[in-house]
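REQUEST FORM: STRUCTURE PREDICTION
Request ID: SP-0412
Submitted by: Lab K.M.
Chain count: 1
Length (residues): 328
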Amino acid sequence: MKKIIIANFIIALLLTLSFNVKANEYNIVFASFFGNDHPNTKMLLKFKDKVETYSRRKFKVSIKANSELGGEEEIMDLVKKGEIQMALIGGLVKYDEPMLASFEQPFIIKDWDHARRVFLSKNIKQFEGDYSTKSGAIIKGIIVNGFRQISSSFKIDSLQDLQGVKMRTPFNDIFIQLFKALGTKPIPIPATEVYKSFENKIIDCQDNPFTLTNSMKWYEFNPYILETKHIFSPSFILVNKDWYEQLKGDNRKLFNQAIKEAVEYNWEMAEQEEHDSMNILKNKGVTIYPVSDSLKNEINKAIEPVYLWFDKEVPNAKEFRDYCQKLE
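STATUS: Completed
RESULT:
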């Protein structure tokens, strides 16, 4: 750990010393739909601190979290058009490059170490397809949304308990296919409207990582969480392509270094945040329980058609499953 800190300090010093103080100033708007207390928002703040420090504030970053500039779809559109420079986006990137949908196949990521081996490897680039050409934005880093779990107002002992249940999903056909296969009635709703939807009894259940369930206070309606880890959801740091390509020399180097360190920080923090969120939820009276062997067998059988759907609809879906299996 000390070696990492020393190495980062040396890099920071070199970048700062080598930066041309006469360079143009760069104003960056970095938007996210995650809440102010979410670990991913802390990553945005880490990037702001790093890039402003390294550049002696030639780069100036304005953080717009908590859907201040709109939801996920809106901010993704803003960065693609160049109206803002950066955005933190989830699975919606697949609508520009379908290959990216393969990242959210169910039960392909086993644990945190496995997730690091998959998403932090240099080889992950081969599965990003031609995203920048199709979208006008560049993926500059993959960070953690986390392992998704199912929260509910009742205990789930078998798939029979889920039949016909109104399950909130994101606007993402991957989740719709998955929860249809499990027997629920999927209802796509933006994350910002989930709390109100619980209040109005539009939905019964939802699936998200512990951190989001805690920060958004959805446990007030769902005091049970089934620890399924059914999907590991990454998030993507998008940068407008035209804006990035006008960065030259030391400007680009220090920008890339700030991104790299913010990504490393996020992965270091995310696992601990998940553990802390679990404890907070338990202290608030939430029952968190594992999937039984019998339920696991039911789920595995039920989702077989989901993999067939992936192989039909998503380029390289099987190749990515094989890649993940190879890195277990």
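NOTES: The radius of gyration is 20 Å.
Reviewed by: T.R.
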